[in-house]
């Protein structure tokens, strides 16, 4: 191997960094306080929509060999559930986007919460 | 514009190439008319009487009345013969904007349906059997599409490096699209000697009867969804 000055230019490659010695000193990188906003992660639904209705429909399908005409009630329930879910989501999205505050509402979306936090900022 | 181009082409063709210097400009022709563009705030026309009645009932007419409206297309009429679903099917059949041909094909299929249903009607002996036979081809189309609409769909969702086919509900719009697509796919899968209107009429009659290729395809999709129901909780939503 040809020796070149560049090979010696970097940090020493004699070994790994030595482990930190206890006690490790605390360095404050950010101020120790909560942010003045909330993130929207908690708003996501854990459960997928209309699982119960889908299971009931599958059971009926299996019984009638996938003939839809024999499961009209179950199919209607499933479709109604999905439609209701969609409508709810769209209204929620619209209201959330605008950040409209409904008086007396117990469950707030993160956008509404941020709206409130912005208009009444927390004091130190 | 296209007329001019056609005229120019004729002029060029009339003279042999050695008399005219060779034109290097490429003439672009379009096979379809370009839609007129309107600004965003122009509203779509509401041309059906039912929709207008709905607007008046919900008292939203006064909101729209002041806004500028696009002119309706030629096929958008308030005639009693106008059916949005039939128009949709015609648009799916259409290729390269040749609406006239598409419309002719669909109407020919309707004629075939009517003929075969009338034949069956006259072959039926009892009045009860006659009453059961549907003679309106548009009603048969509606029924066929309703019967071929899937209720569920499989979405590929990647979890832990493996792609699962996850069953879930389907939107109304996608369901309608798939129904029409499957009906047309089944129709295109035909012998060369059988023409489109005939095959399309057969497929529509089969689907309206809740039998045939398309209904089987829908049921197969439902079966697959049922087999994959264990993955249903992977859906996020």
Q: Could you state the oligomeric state of the chains shown?
A: heterodimer
In DSSP terms (H or I, runs of 4 or more residues), the helix count of chain A works out at: 3
Counting DSSP H or I runs of 4 or more residues, the number of helices of chain B is 10
The share of residues in helices of chain B is 40-55%
Coarse shape of chain B: globular
Q: Biggest interface between protein chains, with counts per chain? A: A-B, 21 and 19 residues
* Low-confidence parts of chain B: 1-17
- Note poorly predicted spans of chain A: none
Rg over C-alpha atoms of chain A, rounded to the nearest angstrom? 29 Å
The averaged pLDDT of chain A comes out at 81
Order of helices and strands of chain B: HHHHHHHEEHHH
What is the number of strand segments of chain A? 0
Give the N-to-C terminal Cα separation of chain B. 51 Å
Largest sheet of chain A: none
Q: Approximately what portion of the residues of chain B adopt beta-strand conformation? A: 5-15%
CATH-defined architecture of the domain at 84-237 in chain B: Orthogonal Bundle
Structural class of chain B: mainly alpha
Q: Please indicate the percent range of residues of chain A in DSSP E strands (runs of 2 or more).
A: under 5%
Largest sheet of chain B: 2 strands, antiparallel
CATH class of the domain at 84-237 in chain B: Mainly Alpha
Family (chain B): Belongs to the universal ribosomal protein uS7 family.
Keywords (chain B): Ribonucleoprotein, Ribosomal protein
GO biological process, one term (chain B): translation
Protein name (chain B): 28S ribosomal protein S7, mitochondrial
